[in-house]
Design a protein that fits this description.
Layout: H1 20-76, E1 84-88, E2 96-101, H2 103-125, E3 144-149, E4 165-172, E5 177-187, E6 191-208, E7 211-229
Antiparallel strand pairs: 1-2, 3-4, 4-6, 5-6, 6-7
Helix pairs in contact: 1-2
């Protein structure tokens, strides 16, 4: 009465080899994922060494800039020997009553040096490396101060100069900060060494591929020094260290 119909069973995943376009698509996706993962692993492995090297180069460059600016300022400011002067004391054989600092000369030197450092850093950030003798002359891309071969960050002598160059960039975070400090170092019985020191601080951002780190470069440079002598004391007990001093009998009234 009723004829049975044969139904063809359909499977969700057809048997047999995949079409070529599917194979290519899967292979391409696997290649992309593997490449990204490999780059991430390599970057995590070399990032600490690379950043340490880049930070070292940045500090070295900044030190050269600061020292060069100070040398130029000292060469142009011929009156730095007048920064420290003694205040005479009347009626005494040792006629030193105090020390005077010429703030006009100090402030002018400080402003001139700070401006020179800021201008040199701006030139370097723009790619003009001729502003620093330590770096190779010429121009590079904006902000790049150095290029490190990839093999150098592996700490392998055989691979030291191999691989693509990794750019190291520097960007100023804020203006150059400077201050003037004075120090007094006593020595001997009645002598003292007086120093006027220029303190310079540069805040910069070290940038390497996929990473950046703020760094601070500070330096102290003496700009004036002078020794002065006071009165010889009636009694002297060395540095005031251990050991009993001699018994001193005070005069009776």
């Amino acid at each position: 009465m009723f004829k049975k119909r044969a139904f063809k069973r359909q499977t969700l995943f057809p048997s047999g080899p995949l079409p070529m376009k599917h194979v290519l698509l899967i292979s391409f996706g696997f290649f992309i994922v593997s490449t990204i993962l490999a780059i991430w692993i390599v970057n995590k492995a070399i990032e600490p060494t690379l950043m340490k090297y880049a930070e070292s180069e940045t500090k070295k460059m900044a030190s050269v800039v600061i020292n060069k600016a100070i040398e130029e300022s000292i060469a142009e400011n011929k009156d730095l020997n007048e920064v420290i002067s003694e205040i005479p004391k009347e009626g005494e054989q040792i006629s030193v009553e105090g020390i005077r600092f010429n703030t006009e000369i100090i402030n002018r030197f400080r402003a001139d040096t700070t401006t020179r450092i800021q201008e040199a850093l701006s030139e370097i950030e723009a790619g003009n490396l001729s502003a620093v003798d330590y770096l190779s002359t010429g121009s590079k891309k904006e902000g790049i101060i150095h290029e490190v071969p990839l093999g150098k960050v592996t700490n392998n002598a055989l691979l030291g100069n191999m691989g693509p160059d990794i750019p190291v960039e520097i960007h100023s975070v804020s203006d150059v900060q400077s201050d003037v400090k004075t120090t007094l170092e006593p020595y001997g019985i009645n002598n003292a060494l007086i120093k006027v020191v220029l303190f310079v601080e540069v805040n910069a951002q070290v940038v390497v591929p996929f990473s950046s780190k703020p760094t601070k470069i500070t330096t102290d440079v003496p700009i004036a020094m002078r020794t002065t002598s006071g009165q010889v004391p009636s009694y002297y007990n060395g540095n005031g260290g251990g050991g009993a001093g001699p018994a001193i009998q005070l005069p009776t009234k």
